Amino acid sequence: MKNWSQAERRLMTWIVYILVPMSGVCVDIYVPSLPHVVTALGVSKTWVQLTIPVFSIGMALGQLIVGPVSDAIGRKPLIIFGAIFQLLCLLFIVSTHSIDVILFCRLLQGLCLSMMMVPVRVIMSDLYSGDEFKKKVTIMTVCWSLGPIIAPVIGGYLQHFFSWHAPFYFMMGYDVLALLLAVTVLKETIQHRVAFSFKQLLSNYRILFKDRRVMSAILIAGILIAYMLLFNVVSPFFVQQVLGYSAVVYGRVAFLIGSAWLLGTLFAKKFAVVSDNKKIPLVLSLITITTLIMCVLTFMLPFQLWQLLLLGVLVIAFAGVLTPGITASTLQLHAQIPATLSALLFSGIWLVGSMITTLGSVLKTKNLLPLEWTYLGITVLAILVYYVYYRQKKVVNVRCKAKLRVKQFSMQCQSTVGC
């Protein structure tokens, strides 16, 4: 590892902290404007809601290839190219009134953002190691969580005082800041470049696709992310169209939801010593019970804002408790190909979450029942995946221990016969 001066290391660390929230900002700052885009473009809410999962799909697919490319050409060039092309995508979005163009540009924006976010995350492993690395990654995770918390509040005020274009101009400003920092301040941190081999990349992915623990972790974590993504897609219409509140009020609702996720991740650190075999069934059961209780309340009571808040805060906080542990335990597998594993894991999580979120485009927003039933369905799916696939490794270990005991007993019997 290169001997960076303390000042250089601190400066590049702060650049990472500044840029990491961008992925969350590019999703959540635009969410308060969804109902207003429907009115401005004269299209159905289904098409407008798709701009969220389409962006996430682009970011997910880009991560599959960006990681290995970053190891080959370095961090800084990808960040610069990604920032330039994202700026072009945003310029096209604010200059068009076609939903087809917006959807296409949002897909490309996700791809461009992956070119920035993957190298930004890897910079930490270039600069630090051991306990110091874990400490910095923890702070980086908190910085990322600030995006979903603060961005909707800003987006709500931008929509209230300007128009639906304003959040995209904000993204442009953020992107220009990232570009300036990358060009003028950020230094190349890669220590050893690795020649890119598409054949080797496919071979590594083939190994991971055959690992049931990795694939089941992607499914479960993707479902946990989908709780928040689904809420973001449908809740603006609940708050602004059904209940008649302003975009500013929705921004405050989203702030509480983002805070619930952050609170859940903080609790996850307290329960880090608890095994997944105890933690996952318990939390998924709590989500199931919460959703069923909210279904009963929806049948019994007229729809009010507190019901939406209660459902979102509880379910998303529970999801925040599980997600860090599942990703951390999965990243410890396949130590020989950590970069490829990281790329597949986070790409797969976003892809699964995005695919589930497309359901939000067909959900009716007259009351909470469609969202509650969707939450219940994907929770049952997560429970099934956990018991059928995720715990498979433990079952194998139990069988191995049983075989070992039989073998030991057989050897004892032979020894007794010999005596």
Features:
single chain, 419 residues, mainly alpha, globular, disordered C terminus
Folded structure, characterized:
The longest helix is centred in the middle third of the chain and has 32 residues. Helix 1 crosses helix 8, helix 11 packs antiparallel against helix 14 and helix 12 runs parallel beside helix 14. The protein has 17 helices and no strands. The chain is mostly helical. 82% of the residues lie in helices and 0% in strands.
Query: Approximately how much beta-strand content do the residues carry?
Result: under 5%
What general outline do the C-alpha atoms trace? globular
What's the total count of β strands? 0
The helix content is over 70%
